[in-house]
TrEMBL record:
Record GO terms (molecular function): metalloendopeptidase activity
UniProt name for this protein: Murein DD-endopeptidase MepM/ murein hydrolase activator NlpD
D-alanyl-D-alanine carboxypeptidase-like core domain ranges (all copies): 574-683
Protein's organism: Nocardioides panaciterrulae
GO biological process, one term: proteolysis
Amino acid sequence: MNRRTHPSPVSHRWRVRAALAALSLATVGATALPSPALAGTGGSTLTSLASTSTKAATTQQKVADAYAAYVQSRQQVEALSAHTQRLNANAKAAAAIADRLRATVADDHGGIIQSLGDWLSPGQSDLDKAAEAADNAEVARTLADAAQAALNAAIDRTEQDRLTWEQAQQHQDRLEATWSAKRVVADAIDHAQFQAAYDATGHQDHRNRAALRAWTHYLHSLGAAAVVPPAAKQLEDPHHLDKPLEPLRNTSYRAVPGVAQARLRDGRAVTVLPRETVRAVSEAFHRLGLSTVPDGIDATTYACGGLLANAWGSSATLPADATGQWQDLHAVPRSTVQPGDVVVLGGQHDGLAQTAVYVGAQRIIVADPATGVAGVQPLPAHFLGVRRATLASPTDNPQPPSGGVCGPATPIPVVDGSGPLSLPMAAGSYRISAGFGDGGGLWSSGAHTGQDFAAPIGTPVAAAGPGTVTVEHPSWAGNLVRIDHGGGVETLYAHLSRVDVTTGQTIEAGDPVGLVGDLGNTTGPHLHFEVRLDGIPVDPTQVVDVPEVPRPTYTNGELPADALCAATPGGVQQLRCDAAVAFRLMGAQFEADNGAPLCITDSYRSRAGQERVHVLKPNLTATPGTSVHGWGLAVDLCGGIESFDTAEHAWMMTHGPAYGWRHPSWAEPGGSRPEPWHFEYEG
């Protein structure tokens, strides 16, 4: 009988190996093909750039490609993982079969008989089966290990593809953030540019432009950091900031509220301001160098808070005046001052001055209270404090100091004086400086035409007498107030830091005129006070009683020319200056009430003049050297006043004392020498 032939164990084992290998390779190869359904699913997770530029499109495509590669790698891992699990299961099963057959073949009781039976019986023997099972188990384990190695490599590739995708996405996010930040920066830079009406020149123009360049550089740095300025609310708490922002710390390493910082690619820090602050600072630059105050605002009002209130606009509701900005805004330490902060100028002694916006590099934008022109100035060494408009309003800020160009209105103290005009400043609030007639190159005429009262900026100035106001702004004076008192008498108040009157206004003696300043041609803060008669300056200390400058005493009839002033236009009649001013003021009122000028026949008499008149009228004149005319304090009047029973004489008797002019008792009816025409000045 012919024995059936079977494949040899060796050839069968190789066929099994080949079949398993082919199956494994086919499975692995199949997993390497991307799934059309999954390859494009990353598009829904991509953030498109607002820009359609080539760079943005290229970056977006890189993100899409990286995501597709990651999805493909992930699918391959999933397929290899399932295949590896199957191969591991097969290897485990093959090993179990091999172990069972090996145990059968190795049985001591049946091993020889089984071997003899395998030789005599046709077909595959148990020994062959055991050998083949062991071989199959080895092949299965080899394939499982190969699949595991392929899976591990696929996992590594997937992780690398994920990182590549994340990096591409981060690059896209940064590109988009950079584009957004640069667009905000471009808008801020454009808004900060000077207007067509910009009129600054010289050093002021240089300061303005240097500060604008620095602000522009800062904005470009902000764009380079890919940071869009956040809302002020997001920066209130420096301990809870969104990335990539980090706290800005002071020298004590404490986090500063209201601002933050970000990092440039080289690691350098750039300060991040709230978007409201960026907008306000740019608006402040936009208002530089305008010779006309925007919106028709008064110059002093604009300087005393109006500039900042308008610069912030709707970004933050700032109080309209310096007092409110000092008291209602959040105080921050001077050491942490940042661009956009409100710098309150002035001092406890000098009072409240303008409010300014800090623009960095020890510079501020501040408006001139005399002209309203805004300009960049150095941050002064001394000022009242710093306020941050974007932080919550406080409840415990102190009251601002009194006085100053922007201080709260303070009552002008009553100024007493026995002359026709009062002292324009309260006693003790000033010190005497340059006097009338002082020579030097500081004055265009070569001589000083007034009396200077040195005092801190913001010291109150009062009207020396009643009259009508004219406000001017000559270059030498800055702010100049003229008061026409009538009768050709005029007083001038120069260099004021604040003017409290308007042209055409009628005021009384002691009414507020303004505050001491240092505007115009000055070497320090002071009031330049002038008295003019018919436009000609006279020594104010000869008219107003100034305690620090007592009036000189002279011998009767020997008054020098500078102690006498014109009592009438043209100077025909002369009196001691205070008496002359009082006479002019009285004459103006007399003419207004009676329709005719006050008539005068005689005034100051020198010693020689007294002697001459005494020769002519020995019974009507005093002994030479004793006459009140010799002191420049007596007048003889006419125009009806020379008679006791006239309306003109009655007017003088009623109104003369208000101007210091009285009718002496000896000259009254029934007196030792009745003279209705004679009146004497008693101050």
